[in-house]
TrEMBL record:
The gene is dinB. Monomer. Belongs to the DNA polymerase type-Y family. The keyword Lyase does not apply. GO terms for molecular function: DNA-directed DNA polymerase activity. Poorly processive, error-prone DNA polymerase involved in untargeted mutagenesis. Copies undamaged DNA at stalled replication forks, which arise in vivo from mismatched or misaligned primer ends. These misaligned primers can be extended by PolIV. Exhibits no 3'-5' exonuclease (proofreading) activity. May be involved in translesional synthesis, in conjunction with the beta clamp from PolIII. SUPFAM superfamilies: DNA/RNA polymerases, Lesion bypass DNA polymerase (Y-family), little finger domain. Signal peptide: none annotated. The record marks F13 as: Substrate discrimination. Mg(2+) binds at D8, D102. Keywords: Cytoplasm, DNA damage, DNA repair, DNA replication, DNA-binding, DNA-directed DNA polymerase, Magnesium, Metal-binding, Mutator protein, Nucleotidyltransferase, Transferase. This is DNA polymerase IV. Its cofactor is Mg(2+).
Length: 353
């Protein structure tokens, strides 16, 4: 049986800004989203008390918290701190799978120090992160990735939650459906319409029933409802694409409705590209119509794509080419693929077409 730790930094970008600028400490802070149609990349816990969260449009965040302090992102600083945290992980195991700059899975079943307790290792890691970066992290400890990931979010900030094998079934059954990793807001809303509010409700559904309502994801939901997750920690896993998509409660009909959504998606994808030091040569626009039919439109370039403005220009052109959608849209998505990694990448595209 594996011993898995999921470490998640607490409000990472915002915490770094508060650490480096004492004036921001104890105040509601949001990183990114400095443009009129921007999106919040990270929010401090003071801002979250007002209902401000990452991926929220700036205009909404400011309406919820008029005293919110908007701070531009400093990715080079975040990357530097992330590398320091990665070095701490590697003191214990080489089986480290980063998910982004601020979170990672660690397999400590066989660790460099020969320690038997994964909980003790998690405590040491949290302590060393605090001592060396002046930042707090939360950790989840269990026997698979799903449980460790969910556990790390249970007692934030500065939390540590352990889910033992004999506790796993009860832990998952009591979990509100919106707290399941891999179940977003729209899927959670659909589940609630079907009477699925907790892990216990999810567990009584057959795999065939879940696949009928949620497609291939139904099999995943069936497994996690039973605390099953056989995925190993993969230290060398390289993402083949980076993207973001959003399903809308009300269908979009006009370009005026779609363009702000594309801008938010482009900003989210650009943040992820910067976090992972990646760029890509292929941009794909995903369109799902009100009748659930799917359409994708792609463009491949000689130069790499990374920045928000360029992504938005390309996505807008793809929306219009070869023709503007003739049916209402229930989902939009932007994906960048054909990726390269590292600081020294081929030249950033300066114009879309």
């Amino acid at each position: 049986m594996r011993k898995i730790i999921h470490v998640d930094m607490d409000a990472f970008f915002a915490s770094v800004e508060q650490r480096d600028n004492p004036v921001l400490r104890g105040k509601p802070v949001a990183v990114g989203g400095t443009k009129a149609r921007g999106v919040v990349a990270a929010a401090s816990y003071e801002a979250r008390q007002f209902g401000v969260y990452s991926a929220m449009p700036t205009v909404t965040a400011l309406r919820k918290c008029p005293t919110l302090i908007m701070v531009p992102s400093r990715f080079e600083v975040y990357k530097q701190v992330s590398r320091l945290i990665r070095e701490i992980f590697l003191r214990y195991t080489n089986l480290v799978e980063p998910l982004s700059l601020d979170e990672a899975y660690l397999d400590v079943t066989e660790n460099k120090l020969g320690l038997k307790s994964a909980m003790f290792i998690a405590k040491r890691i949290k302590h060393e992160i605090l001592q060396e970066t002046q930042l707090t992290a939360s950790a989840g400890v269990s026997f698979n990735k799903f449980l460790a990931k969910v556990a790390s979010g249970k007692n934030k900030p500065d939390g540590l939650t352990v889910v033992l094998p004999e506790e796993a079934e009860a832990f998952v059954e009591a979990l509100p459906i919106e707290k399941f990793y891999g179940i977003g807001d729209v899927t959670a809303a659909k589940m609630k319409q079907l009477g699925i509010h907790t892990g216990a409700d999810l567990k009584v559904r057959s795999e065939a029933d879940l696949r009928r309502h949620f497609g291939k994801s139904g099999s995943y939901f069936y497994q996690i409802a039973r605390a099953q997750d056989e995925r190993p920690v993969e230290p060398n896993r390289i993402r083949k694409s980076i993207g973001s998509e959003r399903t809308f409660f009300e269908d979009l009909d006009t370009e005026e409705q779609m363009l702000p959504q594309l801008q938010r998606l482009a900003e989210e994808v650009a943040y992820d590209l910067h976090r992972l030091e990646a760029s890509g040569k292929t941009v794909t626009l995903k369109l799902k119509y009100h009748d659930f039919t799917l359409n994708t439109r792609s463009k491949t370039f000689f130069s790499s794509v990374r920045d928000e403005e360029v992504l938005l220009d390309i996505a807008t052109e793809l929306l219009r080419t070869p023709f503007f959608p003739s049916k209402p849209i229930r989902l939009l998505g932007i994906t960048v693929s054909n990726l390269s990694y590292g600081k020294h990448q081929s030249g950033q595209l300066s114009f879309p077409f």
